[in-house]
Design goal:
Number of domains of chain A: 1
Number of helices of chain B: 5
CATH class of chain A: Few Secondary Structures
Shape of chain B: elongated
Structural class of chain B: alpha+beta
CATH topology of chain A: 30s Ribosomal Protein S18
CATH superfamily of the largest domain in chain B: Ribosomal protein S6/Translation elongation factor EF1B
Largest sheet of chain A: none
Structural class of chain A: mainly alpha
CATH superfamily of chain A: Ribosomal protein S18
Helix content of chain B: 40-55%
CATH architecture of the largest domain in chain B: 2-Layer Sandwich
Distance between the termini of chain B: 104 Å
Number of domains of chain B: 2
Order of helices and strands of chain B: HEHEEHEHH
Number of helices of chain A: 4
Oligomer: heterodimer
Number of strands of chain A: 0
Helix content of chain A: 40-55%
CATH topology of the largest domain in chain B: Alpha-Beta Plaits
Strand content of chain A: under 5%
Shape of chain A: globular
Radius of gyration of chain B: 29 Å
Largest interface: A-B, 22 and 24 residues
CATH architecture of chain A: Irregular
Distance between the termini of chain A: 25 Å
CATH class of the largest domain in chain B: Alpha Beta
Amino acid sequence: MKQDYFSANNIKYIDYKDIEILKKFLNPNGKIMNHKRTGVTAKNQRQLTSAVKRARFLGLLPFVAK
Amino acid sequence: MPKAEIKEEIEVADARVYELGYLLVPTITDENIGAVYTNLKDLIQDFGGAIIIDEMPKMTPLNYSMLKVVSNIRNKFNNAYFGWIKFEMDTEKVLELKKKLDLDPNLIRFLIIKTVRENTIATKRFVGRDTYRKRPAYTKREGAVPVEINKEEIDKEIDALAAV
């Protein structure tokens, strides 16, 4: 993913309920990927991080996946 | 009169858009879930909130088991009803709402966040199209390799075929 995924798809606000989108940015262990791998802008990477953490709190995403 | 007007303006200025995401206990039956859901909406309206969008709680599997202590008994949950409500409310009232929700025995967990009025869910619009786009890119690369064959060789082969 060279270009920023969210600006390419015109997503202005990253929602914690969009699990299918958030899953693209997790590695097989459930960790959030590095911004160098995601290619997301710094601003969107911060939004993405908080969205993933909210989804984890509500059990929509795992903290650790085996 | 002017005083009342000023007060109203302040109230409007202090209002913010929030979202309440919640997990309900799976022991609630399907018949009662509607009642619990409307109770939550009524509670928000009691605190002066205006509901913008909401979704019915749906049964979802949790990615890890959650604990909730009800009357000194530890309950473990692997499933829950997940629902959310987007609403506009005074900044001060939200804290009161949080205190009230803390005491609710039907909720396993909840989350109140600041958000925007516009629809923020993008999954339905983009996920399908994105995966569809990726496939032709791979086939093009595979197809591009045989183009680099010598034209002379092809001409010879055609000539040979034509001669037969």
